[in-house]
Design a protein that fits this description.
Elements: E1 2-4, E2 11-19, E3 24-27, E4 31-33, E5 38-40, E6 58-66, E7 71-79, E8 85-91, E9 103-109, E10 114-121, E11 131-137, E12 150-157, E13 165-174, E14 177-185, E15 192-199, E16 211-218, E17 225-233, E18 238-241, E19 245-247, E20 252-256, E21 270-278, E22 285-293, E23 299-303
Antiparallel strand pairs: 1-5, 1-7, 2-3, 2-4, 2-6, 7-8, 9-12, 10-13, 11-12, 13-14, 15-21, 16-20, 16-22, 17-18, 17-19, 17-21, 22-23
Length: 362
């Protein structure tokens, strides 16, 4: 877990760990985070949590004891068959579904090297939940749980019950080796969604470090929905507008960017913002995916959107963890809203001291 304190005064937090059945597994000692500072540690490295048993699955809940608020990110790390360390984010959970929210995962796959694990977690203060998990194939036919192939998930609470927080981890195995673990949060349908997308190098022949982007859409409504894609470069230049694409009722579409109707001639290299707009009254959900060829000939995957558009006009946005060195590099992308923005990027070390970084453009 990585926790950052963006304020100019120290903050103190506590972490409670519970099993998925609600059993308490441990409570950390108060953790002090300096003004502008950050901590990053495995759970069992935190005082009070050293004895949390290996082999547990559960929930880590962070509570601010003093200070004006913090940001946090959690990570799931996994050793694959080559003893390589894989990582994906696993939170924080999306806690805005409310009651009776309808969460949708726009992509589900369980075949050709992929497996999917999903976790439902009650909101704070909720003891029990009741509802339906619906699995739909791409053509909107129901999927049996023992025969999952490709589709979407809908999490629908019964009347009077709160929507559980929902997280999915997708694994991809290539040649018997786990190469990617991908965390995706459930979404509330929306009319417009945006995500970063890029293409670099010769991806199809497997050139090392070449990249491509893909997108998955799910329509949770009982009527078809027409969507339009628009791709702009990072400087705002319009690169392509797609032809309308129809997503069936309760159906799903997943495709590479260069397979979108009207995007076939969008050649690498490019990077920018992909906007997906519903042309109908109902909303959709979407997930972006970033693919890269590594030096071993494997394709690695990560989820890359949609963007969180709720920061507002004056709020600061904080990333609780960056890493540069020791094999890690960090790329970050700043994307404006409808109007031009201006502001400051501030970088801080773990102890809250300013970091002077030399930024290298792609």
């Amino acid at each position: 877990m990585a926790i950052a304190n963006p304020s100019n005064a120290p903050a103190t937090v506590r972490i409670d760990v519970t099993a998925l059945d609600g059993t308490a597994l441990g409570v950390s000692s108060p953790i002090s985070i300096p003004a502008g500072g950050q901590i990053a540690a495995f759970l069992n490295q935190l005082s009070g949590l050293e004895s949390v048993p290996v082999g547990f699955q559960g929930v880590a809940r962070l509570t601010v004891l003093s200070g004006s608020g913090v940001t946090a990110a959690s990570f799931r790390l996994f050793r694959n068959e080559r003893s390589e360390l894989l990582a994906t984010t696993t939170g924080p959970l999306n806690e805005n579904a409310g009651m009776p929210g309808h969460l949708v995962f726009p992509y589900l796959t369980d075949s050709t090297g992929y497996t999917t694990q999903f976790v439902l977690i009650n909101p704070p203060g909720t003891q029990t939940g009741s509802g339906i998990l619906r699995y739909w194939a791409v053509d909107a036919t129901p999927l049996q749980v023992d025969a999952l192939k490709l589709g979407s998930i809908q999490v629908v609470p019964f009347q009077g019950f709160a929507t559980p927080h929902t997280h999915v981890v997708m694994n991809h195995t290539d040649g018997g080796v786990l190469t990617s673990i991908i965390g995706v949060e459930g979404q509330i349908p929306a009319k417009t969604l945006r995500m970063f997308a890029d293409a670099q190098g010769d991806f199809d022949p497997g050139t090392a470090r070449s990249t491509r982007s893909g997108v998955a859409l799910a329509n949770p409504a009982s009527a078809p929905v027409s969507v339009t894609f628009q791709m702009r470069s990072l400087d705002g230049t319009l690169l392509r507008t797609s032809q309308p694409l129809v997503v069936p009722a309760n159906g799903q579409v997943s495709l590479a960017l260069n397979s979108i109707p009207g995007f076939e001639s969008l050649a690498a290299p490019f990077e920018g913002v992909l906007t997906v707009t519903s042309n109908s009254n109902q909303g959709i959900t979407a997930a972006g995916f970033h693919l890269v060829n590594n030096e071993r000939g494997n394709i690695l995957f990560t989820a890359i959107g949609p963007l969180k558009e709720d920061a507002g006009a004056t709020q600061q946005v904080v990333f609780p963890h960056i890493a540069e060195g020791g094999g890690y590099t960090t790329q970050f992308v700043v994307i404006s809203g409808d109007q031009a923005n201006t502001g400051v990027l501030s970088f801080f070390s773990e102890d809250g001291n300013p970091l002077n970084l030399t930024l290298a453009p792609r």
